[in-house]
Amino acid sequence: MNAKVFVADRLQRVPPAYPDDSLLRAAELLAQGGAGVLPIVEFGTPIGVLTESRLREAIQQGADWLEPVAQWMDEAFLRVPIDTPADEAAETLAYSEQPALGVDSWGRYVGVVTLAGLAARPISLPQVGIIGGMATPLGVYLTNGVVSAGAGTLGLMLTGALLFALFLLANWLVIGGMWWAQERLGVPLYSYYNSPFAGQWFLLSDVMGLVLRSSIFVVFLLLMRLLPIAGTHAAEHMVVHAIERGEPLTLEVVRRMPRVHPRCGTNLVAGIVLFLGLAKVFQFGAPEGEARDLALLMALLLTLMFWRAFGGFLQWVATTKPPTDKQLLNAIRVGEELLRKARPYSGATPPFGLRLLNSGVLQIFLGAWGLMALLYLLESWLGITLVVQ
User: Fold this and answer.
1) What would you measure as the largest C-alpha separation in the chain, in angstroms?
2) 24 in a structural domain
3) Which one in 34, 93, 185, 368 has a CA-CA gap of 20 to 30 Å to 169?
4) Which of 377, 361, 371 is nearest to 168 (CA)?
5) Please, what is the average pLDDT of the chain?
6) Of residues 185 and 204, which shows the higher confidence score?
7) Domain range spanning residue 66?
């Protein structure tokens, strides 16, 4: 059973002004209080309030900033006993245009009562720190470096194996397609791809070789978009957005969150691809020496300017897609689990080793390496080529 919440639990402690305080001093207190309402008290009892609208009226009528605030205060306000249940007070404020002040049993001012303050959640969210996450075939994985939730080591290893498998499949499709086109149609695509000068820009065939090599990355992204893991990836981002904004983890709220996140690992990959591509373009025809160094510097500067935008674009078109409600609900469950685990460690800073272990990077590399080792073993056993390059 939830504990009963009263107005006293939701008050905003705003320092009051006194009737003979200047309008300037009252305006300063109004700004500092942050509630949009400044109580005016006399002998501890509230006698009026100053609001933004009332202050605006005073300025429009040419009030002197040094006049006493009593001349401009509004005497119409609600006095809400602080032992009133919060839900009852919220019902009252919802149908009233007047500001409200909380008073004790003797009628003395205690704090400002606002509808937003009454609706706020009584338990503060834990300071979870920076949240990282992964989309895995077994669902969402989330961590703040100290604790983790969701898909465990097996899910992370399967992610590494899946990414490696998609990369191999992209290689098979592109290289196999080039070989088929060359053998059946007479188009020398496979020769372009294997040219030792591919990407050197000397001939059209060299440029074609660069394009064909780059197409493997494009096919890899398209394959990822087709799989359910792209929806899981989006759900992970949306839940992290909701947690970082302090929103409740409900399906209706999480659905509204963006599926692109600025800290996604896709951005790092985008930065690498962008730098390598720009470096190749800027070095075209440049002689050895300072000209090539300048080309690399230009590529680096442009990468630093646009890598996040490029990464966001890749997230939108390839590595995420609109998630299903089932995927969102799974991500919400993991988010709630992370918050529950993080509460006892609120504000804690994890050591580097623990953060690295919880990041999931090592497990992903282990999964990719495990699949690669298995394929090489099958190659040796069956005498066929599985890992194409």
Assistant:
1) 98
2) yes
3) 185
4) 371
5) 85
6) 185
7) 7-119
